[in-house]
Amino acid sequence: MGYGVTEAGGMISMLPRATSNSSIGRPLPDVQMKLSKGTAGEPLIKGLRTMKTYLNNEAATQAAFNKDGFYRTGDLAHMEGDEFIFDGRASSDSLKVEAALMALPYVVEVVVVAVPDPSCANQIAVVIRPRVAAVANVSLNGVRSDLAHSLPVYTLPTKLRVLGEEETLPRSVSEKINKKETLRRYFEGNSAKVEACAPPQIKKNKPQKAWDWAGLQ
């Protein structure tokens, strides 16, 4: 069993006799690999073979790496013992939006969800818990402006819900954020506290790209 990433020069982890069919083994000696949330989350990698930048695309480069210089794979995995177990492909765009939001100095907690919209497949919606001192100043226009330096326009959020002091993000028994319940609680039905703007216009007859999870390209 093994796991490879083009941006890291090919194979980055391997285990000849894995204990699970979903195992991607252990990182090779020249690779550092960890998960974004400790024992679960997005595999993050760093090594001499890992690319340093996307040619002539600074925004894509910033979105591809976390603040510690680890490359964001866009996949999901968890640990079983000392083995990494592959859980599937995450929405790389949503992960990059969440990472960019968490890099903002006034954000404490965030989650990105897709709100169905017949005009553009989905709108990008975010729920933010800001620092107490910043609550009154957080706005959708401000967030979009702050993100515009590091994200392409089609990934900028078009809906924003700011959590109040007593409000929480719904979580599973394993303490993972429940995105379906977040969508239901904060964007379906009662949307009085949701700030929104119109999504970018797209041509209806234009084929949707396979990676365009927001339906905006």
TrEMBL record:
InterPro entries: AMP-bd_C, AMP-bd_C_sf, ANL_N_sf. SUPFAM superfamilies: Acetyl-CoA synthetase-like. Residues 96-176 form the AMP-binding enzyme C-terminal domain. GO terms for biological process: fatty acid metabolic process. Residues 198-217 are annotated as: Disordered. One of its GO terms (molecular function) is medium-chain fatty acid-CoA ligase activity. Belongs to the ATP-dependent AMP-binding enzyme family. This is AMP-binding enzyme C-terminal domain-containing protein. It comes from Aspergillus caelatus.
